[in-house]
Fold this sequence. Notes:
The chain has 256 residues and is of the alpha/beta class. The chain has 9 helices and 14 strands.
Amino acid sequence: MIKAVFFDIDGTLLPFGKSQVPESAVRSIAALRQKGIKVFVATGKSLALMLHTSVKNIPFDGYLTLNGQLAYDDKFSMLYGVQIIPEEMEILSQVFKSDKIPFEMIGEFSRYINFIDERVKQNVANTNSIIPSIDRYKGEKIYQITAYTDHHKIDLIKDVMELCKVTFWAPDACDIVAKDGGKENGIKKILETYGIAKEETMAFGDSQNDNGMLQLVGTGIAMGNALEITKDVADYITADIEDDGIEKALKHFELI
């Protein structure tokens, strides 16, 4: 019996480059809640950026943000946070500066970037986000870094990231979080909080940063528009986001 369902945002609830959640997904989430099934956001976005999208108009039972690094209840009270340690932040800051890679640092309430190029502008536009202000790391708590570069450059500097891990959500954009972070670890803490077994859960995703959670939950569902590496780890592949993929999957599993 499914008691909780987790939803990624970009590419899952929100089509890339679009501003509205498909109506079929909105009514599906409402139907789940009416049946007493808890629904959670599980996104790489910060809470502030999530509230900048149309997802803010959908009632959820909790919010897992920054790829599992920060979690909030339905009243937006923080449940926990997992930061990148300052020593690792200093190392990464120096590496990214030397390689001239745009990298965005995200705290609970702050968000800034070292410089802005076309990659940054395009990915920000695709995810209905906001271009961050330019600043430098000053030692505050950082929960996630978003680097705008390709796999090759990140592979070259992975050796210095002993206490962090990387997941790509676009060909030239990736998120860096603490090694004990990630959506899957965030979900574990959410389930402990609400007393739900992982076998009683389902999750929807479309990118590499969703792979861990799709493998953790009882039923992991990849959108039809998902990356192949995400489809490969899913238990079920549904239709595209704009072809009512969420609603079709929930009907397939007789949850609505």
